[in-house]
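Protein: Fe2OG dioxygenase domain-containing protein
Species: Medioppia subpectinata
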Amino acid sequence: MDTNFVNIYKLIESKPQNAAIFTEKDFEVYRAVKNKILQTIAIHFGVSPKHLYLTDPTFFSRLTSAAAQTKHDEYWHKHVDKQTYKSFHYTSLLYLTTFGSDFTGGRFIFADKELNKSIAIEPKLGRVSAFTSGSENEHFVERVSTGTRYAITVSFTCDPKHAISDPKMGHKFSRRAQRTSTSWSGCPPEPDMPLLSHSLAIQSTPSVTLRWVTNSDFIHSVIN
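Structure follows.
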């Protein structure tokens, strides 16, 4: 049994008959969604869009109540994204199913150490949540009890060395050519470094924003 991510590019390269999995229209939708998320992160987190780059992995997740086959399937443990994916500075999730109707359990939980409490986000079709990827945002996902929970994770880096190109038909996975400028203006602190201030709310505040979530209408204008 394969215990790693399935790299769609490599799957298509090794078996050309799989090229029909996606169409160019699918990639157009993905790029439009990615660009809207990037612009919104730039606005709410106070980062210049030119300092944000798509990074890998960007992946779909499918969570059910099935027993975990490997340790990596145990998504319900607390973790910090940047400890797993060193390139991440901002993590975003676009939810593709709705809590309470498509599945039960499966809420996204921030384990807020400073508040000494948990903050829950209920997934909803079209809802996007975004947060800085360091230790200030330790989190986990509740175990799914019934149904199937789908989401796509779209991650961004401030380091051009870790930038990847947008997907398109006939495109092999590659890193974007590094720009001459390596300015990291606007990047969040590295894990375990002290924060300048802490946002207690999910929504944007006058202080440094660490977490942000939309209603379900955010992405509909892009997809429809």
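Remarks: Residues 177-185, 189-207, 220-224 have pLDDT under 50 and may be disordered.
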